[in-house]
Structure formats: structure tokens, C-alpha cells
Amino acid sequence: MVKNLPASENGRGDLCTPREKEQYVVSHDLAKDKFTLWKVVPEGYEKIKAGADSPFELYDLIPAFRDKE
């Protein structure tokens, strides 16, 4: 858990709000060209998964998107 996203996560990020009071951020490390999924929590950000080659790989880890099927 971190208070702020690391400086290495310097690419354009996306805020996902699939359910009321639940937010996720997909950040992008431009140097490594990798994506990380974070859950927004009161203390800051909780890392869910790092090192994805595409942000689309991370969407199934967000419960509201996974449960849509």
C-alpha cells in the first residue's frame, strides 16, 4: 500500500469507477512500457497487479467488470 503512485508510473493513467464507492487506477510506466492496477483505498493505493503488457489484461481483475458476464 502506498500513499501516492510511484514517480515511475508516469504515463497516462485511467481511473475506473465501476461501482459506487469503488475506484481503481490503471497506471503506465513509460520506461518499461508496463501497466499496473491499483485499488483506491482511504490510505492511498493498494497494488493489485503489476507488469501487464496491456491495460486490457488488468480489467478482468476488477470485480465489477469480471462479474458482467
Task: Describe the overall structure.
The chain has a four-stranded antiparallel β-sheet with strand order 1-2-3-4, with no helix packed on it. It has one helix at residues 63-66, and strands spanning 14-19, 22-29, 34-41, 44-52. The mean pLDDT is 87. A hairpin with a 2-residue loop joins strand 3 and strand 4 (44-52). The longest helix has 4 residues, at 63-66. With 69 residues, the chain is mainly beta.
Report a brief summary of the structure.
The chain is mostly beta strands and 69 residues long. The chain has one helix spanning 63-66; strands at residues 14-19, 22-29, 34-41, 44-52. Strands 1-2-3-4 form a four-stranded antiparallel beta sheet, with no helix packed on it.
Enumerate how many helices there are, as a single number: 1
Distance between the ends: 30 Å
> Which runs of at least 5 residues are low in confidence (pLDDT < 50)?
none
- Could you tell me the mean pLDDT? 87
Strand content: 35-45%
Distinctive features:
single chain; 1 helix; globular
Produce the secondary structure layout.
Layout (H helix, E strand, L loop, with lengths): L13 E6 L2 E8 L4 E8 L2 E9 L10 H4 L3
